[in-house]
Amino acid sequence: MRVNGRPMRTIWLVEPLGAVEIIDQTKLPFRFEIAKLERLEDAAHAIRAMLVRGAPLIGATAAYGLALALREEPSDARLHAAQAVLAATRPTAINLRWALDRMARLLGPLPEGERVEAAYAEAARIADEDVEINAEIGRNGLAILETLAKGKDSGPLNVLTHCNAGWLATVDWGTATAPIYMAHDAGLPIHVWVDETRPRNQGAFLTAWELANQGVPHTVIVDNAGGHLMQHGQVDLCITGTDRTSAAGDVCNKVGTYLKALAAKDNDVPFYVALPSPTIDFSLHDGVAEIPIEQRDLSEVTHISGRADDGRIETVQLTPDASAAANYAFDVTPARLVTGLITERGVAEASSESIAALFPERARRSA
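Request: output the structure for the sequence above.
Response:
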């Protein structure tokens, strides 16, 4: 995708078997900065502190983090220790564990002298595969948007999304935004309602910044406005991403997604979830009961950062000193509220049978 007209990815290798660079997403939308990852600790910090975020990008960053660790020392002990460090950074996004397991399966049997080159090559494959997967998600989702647009008498197709499931959450294209970008590029009139997505404001800070760079018409709204817009016929469909989806189609995503799905169900608005297949956790069947929900630092709720009139970036407190706070980062939307899952292999119903039919090899391995 583009930043000020320049094509970019969210993560890239600086030099062969060397450092990795990322877009520091904690600085957006007011500053565009690139951070360099040179050691395992840099990659772990980038994931934990959300310089990178979004399940697919977390997975790619973790893969490069293992490569950086083995560049310093390619021993078995280092491989296992680095895997443990990276696995502990974010508990909810399944792509993190998926990428680390994939890397370990490849690297574990190799002689130490072959591990570094193999690690970098596999991390690059994971990143490239993510781009291709998201492009396929975009093409499959585009068909849905085109069908809905044909049924409208006038005006643009209005899509509501939540949090950031854009290219900043992946290596490129995004999940929920991939169909939107393809529709826009194809000349389909489209407009996006962007939930601000408290507490970290990933919608207002990241999705809106992305859409502006791609020239896609959009409007930022407060999180609680979505139901009102649906009641008044101003939303044609919802598309969100997901950090982990159960084998039965329960969808874990940024907190607030469940409420959007409830409003969509009440107003007969289609509610789609766009996801790459590594985000499906075939070991889980009851997402509400089994998916761990990350609880993040309370300051994300009690404080907020923004740009002052003089251009300075300032952080201010929102809540009384004596008030307690809680910061649940995700919620789970039950499969019964999901119209369909847009994957790289097609659109599945949110059910065990439909998901297994699209990905039979993974369903068999987990059985």
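The radius of gyration is 20 Å.
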